[in-house]
Amino acid sequence: MDYITTANVLLWFFLTLGFYLVFLSHWLVSVSLFPDYVARCSDQYRRPITVTLIGLLAMFVPVGIGTVLLNVLPPALKWVGLLIIGAPILIGLLGTAGLARRIGLGMPSPEDEAQPWKRVLRGGTALALTFLLPILGQLIAIPLVLASGLGASVLTWFANRKRTSAPPALPESALTQTTTP
Q1: pTM of this prediction?
Q2: What's the rounded Cα separation, in Å, for the pair 178 and 181?
Q3: C-alpha span between 167 and 73 (Å, rounded)
Q4: What secondary structure does DSSP assign to 81-132, as a single string?
Q5: How far is residue 29's CA from residue 126's CA, in Å, rounded to a whole number?
Q6: Which parts of the chain fold into alpha helices (H)?
Q7: Could you tell me if 181 and 120 are in contact, meaning their C-beta atoms sit under 8 angstroms apart?
């Protein structure tokens, strides 16, 4: 690629547009299939630095293990390494739908009550536009956003575990009844 041709310009334009649309599509599908989960992930973004650091820690282990497996396993089993690397990325995409929703909540519209997915569309559009910055957007922002999405998912899972592990409360009527032999 010694010189710029129309084909090279169109190649990069459509690759960038494709990635942009893939991110938006994942976020919209996530919020339509799992609205409660995305809302809980969105709540985790009240602490963005903690969420991102937890996500970086949670992403480091599977990506490291997957990379080692890609180098060690025979060619017929390299899919295992790819699966281990791809799982945190997909979970991160699911969690970043919460970030897109959180950003969209800052851009309210009267239509939000009837169509809550539009929050994610607006927030996701703004978030995905930050990925278009050539070096910072593609090499720093995308990995950090995916890591924060993984962190939001991990924190949401642990919050759900704490909530479901508590013993169920007795109804008030059961507390007032006395048993006689």
Answers
A1: 0.82
A2: 10
A3: 45
A4: HHHHHHHHHHHHHHHHHHHHHHHHHTS--GGGTT-THHHHHHHHHHHHHHTT
A5: 17
A6: 6-33, 35-44, 48-72, 78-105, 117-130, 134-135, 142-165, 172-176
A7: no
The half-sphere exposure of 4 on its side-chain side, counting CA atoms within 13 A, is 4
Distance CA 70, CA 63 (A): 10
Supply the Cα-derived Rg of the chain in whole angstroms: 21
Write down the residue that tokens 């497996």 correspond to. 69
Q: What is the pLDDT of residues 80-122, one digit of tens each?
A: 999 999 999 999 999 999 999 999 999 988 888 888 889 999 9
CB-CB contact of 131 with 141 (8 Å): yes
Q: Which residue has the higher pLDDT, 162 or 104?
A: 104
Q: For residue 94, which of 138, 32, 158 has the smallest C-alpha distance? A: 32
Q: Which amino acid is at 140?
A: I
